[in-house]
Specification:
By secondary structure, the chain is of the alpha+beta class. Helices cover 68% and strands 12% of the residues. Helix 1 runs antiparallel to helix 2, helix 2 packs antiparallel against helix 3 and helix 3 packs antiparallel against helix 4. Belongs to the PMP-22/EMP/MP20 family.
């Protein structure tokens, strides 16, 4: 049971890590119509007519979203590594707890990033462009948040189970 919880947490953490990397790196967070053609916008670039360009202006909400997403990726990576390393020493290790905390922190950081992006996008771009929508990378980011939180909870439950179990008795002394 303990290895199932820790293993499930690590598996969810790996899936969250992959999804966080994909959602952070792609250019499909928002789609809208611009001068009669479709445009895509990501955290790093925007694309119009299949030609991508780097963001030339520095906008605070993009910087904050980028920073929180990168911190979420790093925290998720640390949680996965700690979760995997706990299997070499058994789940009665504090690495499971630390990995669970790192994964919950990863979910929280990604939640902050997407909340900032959502709030600014809806208030600013919602008025500017009539035909806009959030794209698949943005939705993948929300799925990664759910997986990161679930992974952290699984690993924290695995640690709680190991600390709640009594130590095996040694009958060799009797």
């Amino acid at each position: 049971m303990l290895y199932s919880l820790a293993g499930g947490g690590t598996l969810c953490g790996v899936a969250a890590l992959v999804l966080l990397i994909v959602s952070t790196a792609t250019d499909f967070w928002m789609q809208y119509r611009y001068s009669g053609s479709s445009a895509n916008q990501g955290l790093w670039r925007f694309c119009i007519n299949h030609k991508c360009h780097a963001h030339t202006i520095t906008v605070a909400f993009w910087d904050a979203t980028r920073a929180f997403m990168l911190l979420a990726v790093l925290s998720c990576f640390a949680g996965v590594v700690l979760g995997l390393s706990a299997f070499t020493n058994g789940t009665k290790n504090r690495r499971v707890r630390t990995g669970g905390i790192a994964l919950v922190l990863s979910g929280f950081l990604a939640l902050l990033a997407l909340a900032i992006y959502t709030g600014v996008t809806v208030t600013f771009f919602g008025k500017r462009f009539l035909d806009w929508r959030f794209s698949w990378s943005y939705i993948i980011g929300w799925v990664a948040i759910i997986l990161a939180f679930a992974a952290g909870v699984f690993q924290l439950c695995a640690y709680q189970r190991t600390t709640a179990e009594p130590a095996p008795s040694n009958n060799a002394d009797s």
